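Thread title: Can someone regenerate the structure for this chain?

I was given the following input by a collaborator and told the matching structure tokens would be attached. They weren't. Posting the sequence so someone can regenerate them.
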Amino acid sequence: MRRVITAARLGRDVEDSLDGVAERMQSADFAWAVMAIRIQREVGGNLAELLNTVADTMVQRERLRREVAALTAEGKISAIILGAMPVGLGILMWLINPGYMKPLGTTGLGQGMLGLAIVSALIGFVWMKKTITVEM
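Best answer:
Regenerated them for you:
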């Protein structure tokens, strides 16, 4: 804000200075507040009421972001566990009985099944990642 005040004292438009701050902060919420201030200055009205409304909206958006993060956390943990389980079980089975797992690496059918399992796991991982990701 110090830069905005300094720029205003040097004759730069306050809205342009605020836009610069919004770009540097890379904050969509702050850019939205600057847009609201611009509209208010053109149209007129109660600036304090407008800023209170913008602040309330920003608080609600942050609350929603946190709620979405909490709701998607379970899905993220599930994706990690489901992705690690086949590898972990394969290693465990190889440690317990190496002869049981040997055909996966030595026969054509075993290598094909192993390749299919890897491709299926990757497809599942990508699918879960897209399902879990929420754009805000």
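The CA atoms of residues 114 and 120 lie 10 Å apart.
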